[in-house]
Amino acid sequence: MKRLKAFWLSTEMRRKMKFQREADPLWAQKIAERPGCEGLFSCLQCGTCSGTCPLSIYMDFAPRRIIALVREGFKEDALSCQTIWLCASCYSCAVHCPRQIHITDVMYSLKREAIQEKLYPRHFPIPVLAQEFYKMVRRKGRSSEFWLVLRMAFRTNPMQLLGMAGTGWQLMRTGRLRLRQDRIEKVKELQSELAGREVG
Amino acid sequence: MRIGVYICHCGTNIAGTIDVQALASYCGSLPEVAVAREYKYMCSDPGQELIRQDIRDHKLDRIVVAACSPHLHEKTFRHAVAEAGLNPYFFHMVNLREHDSWVHVDKLAALEKAMDLVRAAVRRVKWHVPLERREVAIHSEVLVVGGGIAGIDAALTLASAGKHVYLVEREPTIGGHMAQFDKTFPTLDCAACILTPKMTAVKGHKNITLWTYSEVQQVEGYVGNYEVKVRRKPRYVIEDLCVGCMECIQACVFKQGKTSDAFNLGLSKRKPIYIPFPQAVPPVVVIDREACIEFKSGKCKKTCVEVCAERNAIDFKQQEHIESIRVGAIILATGFDVFDVSRIPYYGYGLYPNVYTSLEIERLVNASGPTGGEVVLRDGRKPATVGIAHCIGSRDTHTNRYCSRVCCMYSLKLAHLIKEKTGAEVYNFYIDVRAPGKAFEEFYNHVAEEGVNFIRGKLADVYPEGNGGGRLILQAEDTLLGMIRKIPVDMLVLSAGLEPRADSNEVRRLFNIGCSADGFFLERHPKLAPVSTFADGIYIAGCCQGPKDIPDTVAQSGAAAAQALALIDAGVVELEPNTAYVLAEACSGCKTCIPLCPYSAIAFLEEKKARINEVLCKGCGTCVAACPSGSIRQNLFEDQEIYEEIEGILA
What we know:
- The complex is a heterodimer.
- By secondary structure, chain A is mostly helical.
- Chain A contains 12 helices and no strands.
- In chain A, helix 9 (125-140) packs across helix 10 (145-156).
- The longest helix of chain A has 16 residues, at 125-140.
- Chain B is of the alpha/beta class.
- Chain B folds into 5 domains: 3-133, Rossmann fold; 134-233 and 320-335 and 501-568, FAD/NAD(P)-binding domain (3-Layer(bba) Sandwich); 247-307, no CATH class; 341-498, 3-Layer(bba) Sandwich (FAD/NAD(P)-binding domain); 579-634, Alpha-Beta Plaits.
- Helix content of chain B is 28%, strand content 23%.
- In chain B, the strands form 12 sheets. Chain B has a 5-stranded parallel beta sheet with strand order 10-7-6-18-29, with helices on one face. Chain B has a 5-stranded parallel beta sheet with strand order 20-27-21-22-23. Chain B has a 4-stranded parallel beta sheet with strand order 2-1-3-4, with helices on both faces.
- In chain B, strand 6, helix 6 (149-160) and strand 7 (165-168) form a beta-alpha-beta unit.
- The radius of gyration of chain B is 31 Å and the shape is globular.
- Chain A binds chain B through residues 44-52, 56-57, 61-62, 64-65, 96, 98-100, and chain B through 346, 391, 395-398, 431, 456-461, 475-479, 482, 484.
């Protein structure tokens, strides 16, 4: 949690003003047409989602503000924030929302969109992990924790590996972490199956 | 036959979509159409004059007007036609606006549809026969159902106009919810001080028959002639003998009350013999059968009877009985239920003792309430911090979608009263503060200046403080700060919304009126007939029509009383002639129609034929369609008229 807080503090300063040319109302319309995002424009901005969210206290924009940003079409802010990656899919917001907006689904839509548009925070572990995981599964058909953690750490904050080394060694010694990477037999079939369905 | 066709532009409502010139020239080419015109507003005086002039100049004998919905202007045009000397039923109206221009975007297709609709009307109207409206006499008595402020006010208005009113109230006293309130927003005048004079006026008025502890059981008849049966529940105390000295309550063998007091929402206990509150009207005690020992075992010392020996008002053998009355009009003022906050479990009502509903707080701050006006928690402590959560059960698709309209203002009032009585820090959790009434915004400003805190965010979660001190943590997003707030409070007040009465569906069936989607009684027109219903002679007032505050309720009850007065003062009512009738020679006496009639208008005669009471018939056509021998027909909907209309559309 300390680390999350450090990330939060390290985000660059944002200008607290919006020009209307920065807004993309068509994009807002497009998101609202996605499955699960239908209720977007009925949002009351009551803040129940943020109030019940167990992670909102660490988010740069609480869920309510994400909805507001999307509605107004401020695509870059909505896609480059950490909030959508902090969402743990607990569905508390969706359960409590007085307009029954499927906020978790909105978060998923935005995550896909952020990877597609390459607007996700570059050194934030969660989107990096998601991408690395996908790449690995696509290449081998299976994931390997050792390589996954390694890749994620290299792309986000390689220095943290030093701190993890001791634990890593212990895990490897007891056979909990393996260097060898498994692969399934018909990787090519899996790849052709996944082809054309990728967002990133 | 010489038919006149008139196409209305309705400004751009119709002409914006339909080429009215093309339509008029098409209509002119139809057989037997003598005149076809279009005009900007047919309903305007010059528009009507156009019709009247043409009837005279061109000797027209049938009129078709293609304009808006017949609901709006059928009467207008029938009247205009009659003024020109024609039978008003030699007229037919085509709904070009709602059925065509408002619902289509393809202009060419809309024009084609308009041609079809007008052609059908032209073919139908030829077959119209002259009809007469009937008049029936009206009873001058009025029934008012519900003795809250709406019913009280309507009853008093009608009674002072010299009409006899029957005021029926389900509870043992009149007063309704208003009697439970302490102060009223925004002026903070005491609710009892302004209500009780009206309650006593009801009791004393010679034109009002007050039946409390009574319910309407059956309603039959029609506008001007309703036959109503009222069930009078036994209160086991003879109303005429009891003077309200309340010595029986003192004398009751129960030294302490053991039954939850509904008037105080269970915050206090009452005895089996009780009076709901000191200023109750009528000031007559009631015996609660469920709690009274005499009813349970028959072995009570009956100290209440002893102490009442002189008047002998207590009668354990009282039975319920039915009163039958005839009234000309009915005003429904059945009020609302408070939203049951336990339906939203995460606010912890019933789980945490220090979570209250707003109505409970009304009783706590009230000087005649369970604590004598002290705002204290259930353990007797005075709260130092209080949270008030707005919009509980309102503006929420899980419960009620609508805004309950009064909660913002009563929450501000309670915030003020709590702060005044306890000096507590008060936090209001709101989505929007809706203060649009007269002097409401000023009151909001006044409360804010007093130092009441306003947090813009709906209360999201409630949980007990970890240290076991009994305080509750209120969690919400302060949307204006963009921060999550966690505020420990001693007391949480849930500002519950207003709901239709739990039995409003049965009541609306009883009186044959409708409900809107939210369950409140449906008015005839949301703007222009807000107190009328689709049942003639039945009016609605107060919160049974939708949530509203006291000033709006009183305004509405006055309006309902005026409507009822306008109806009964006329002495007679005109009935539409579009009723069904039986061709006696063709009727086989199968009785199929009788149970189908929603208005019980069909009788079975001795000669084994059905007969329809024209006064009761509303012209719904159910029996006409159901009759296996085709012996029931309906005025204005004769077979030939309908066939011609269908053929006209399909031609």
